[in-house]
């Protein structure tokens, strides 16, 4: 099957937007693109992204692997459709009287929760900007949160890309820490305490005085948890965005003629 449709669209985009005709004959009765994608998401969640293959998904659906190719062009396209599927539920509505800061904060936290629930999605390579319908819907909601600001349209998009990058990076680091560092200890407190003892033994106060002050302050004895670390970083990013929003608003005020 070709990777592009007659309209020149990549096959996975035509599939995602429902723009590709389906064969009238041949596929197993009841088989659909959504069922295929949902079955693949289930396999990735229950096992791993590596477990996803056309034959494995076909087995979940009691279908032949070749029947899946009538609906999706390749495994690579299936992976992209899987990522779009996890964003099927839109962000919660933004209150009309809600500020941009709280709106974006909630948007970011909800997106982070989606990735935390589907860690396999972090290992699907990013092939470009959002183009599939559910991801574009999330982008639209993010941009809309900034609608009351004086930011230029290009700046609004840059803010959303900044936030999206932070969300994905933090989720990836947290997942990898869980899989290695934290998995070797009974809980996060024990893991951090062990790390503190190790660092104290390896680093003398004369060589790493700043790190030793952190250890002496008991910072590693009371781990904050990944959620608090995420929101701490998120709030600092939004603080920076807030400075830009205020600067653009002041610039606009400076151009208003006196007496108006």
TrEMBL record:
Asked if the keyword Transcription regulation belongs to this entry, the reply reads yes
DNA-binding positions: 53-72
Keyword Zinc appears in the UniProt entry: no
Q: Where is the HTH tetR-type domain?
A: 30-90
Origin: domain of life: Bacteria
Q: Which UniProt key words apply to this protein?
A: DNA-binding, Transcription, Transcription regulation
Any GO molecular function: DNA-binding transcription factor activity
Q: Name one GO biological process term.
A: negative regulation of DNA-templated transcription
Q: Give the InterPro entries listed for this entry.
A: Homeodomain-like_sf, HTH-type_TetR-like_transc_reg, HTH_TetR, Repressor_TetR_C, Tet_transcr_reg_TetR-rel_C_sf
Q: What name appears for this protein in its UniProt entry?
A: TetR/AcrR family transcriptional regulator
Q: Tell me the organism.
A: Streptomyces luteolifulvus
